[in-house]
Amino acid sequence: MTLQQLKYMLVVAERGSITEAAKELYISQPSLSGAIKEVEKEAGITIFSRCRAGVALTKEGMEFLGYARQVVQQMELLESKYLDKKPAKQRFCVSTQHYTFTTNAFVELIQHFGQERFEFILNETQTHQIVEDVRNRFSDLGILYLCNSNENVLRKLFEEYNLNFFELFTAVPHIFIAKKHPLAKCKSVRLDDLKPYPRLSFVQGIYESSNFSEELFSNEPVDRSIKVSDRAAIVNLMIGLDGYTISSGIFPKYLQGDSIVSIPLEEDEVMHIGYILNKDKELSELGEIYVEALKQYQT
Known about the structure:
alpha/beta, Arc Repressor Mutant, subunit A, D-Maltodextrin-Binding Protein, domain 2, 3 domains, 5-stranded mixed beta sheet, 3-stranded antiparallel beta sheet, 9 helices, 12 strands, 39% helix, 22% strand
């Protein structure tokens, strides 16, 4: 298989369509389909499954493309340094649960890096997708947490996917609510105090369960539940509907500054916040800088 074929495969995976990928690559659809078949035959696996909507990566295909992406990136670094005579363009990608402190640390990383040419990616996404991103080597590392209710399931998944978990720090549960919320003046609250208010949480798609939830105590029944996909929406719902979410309490400023407050939740649980990494991979220099930036947020 050739480097060009690997590049083709990456574009097909990103577009989810051979037709769209062929247009972007300025080659014919039959030529692209032929290249895919050649690679699949040589690798001895099926990389893409065909469907009415286009194509999707198989399990084997996800793993294959993870390695292919590394090969292409390394070749681009070589070309950049020795052929283009430009400084190497660094790529660094983090997949994370929806934490403000991971964004802040990312800003510090970019400021510290200081070079002109780079591709940095911060992907706030669902818990299972974080694991998949690191497993498939799309992301250099992933940020999530372990607790009593999810640790067994997630550690089993890490083992299956050949990943290691490294703890950064621990945090006790807090609620985030609007500054004008009826509970905002409380020194602490319990789950029973929250029953009259809507619980806000992040969507986990087909993996919707307490094992993959970003919020502690997600298996506790509530009368009103609102699920969203981004932090900005959660902030708006906190302010507009007196909603609450349960998280770490670390750097609770979100996007609205002092409009949101953090209050300790008096329940018996601890969040072990850390990062996952492929077992056969060590932190890169950028990864080490990012992890050190994250550690400053420990309480």
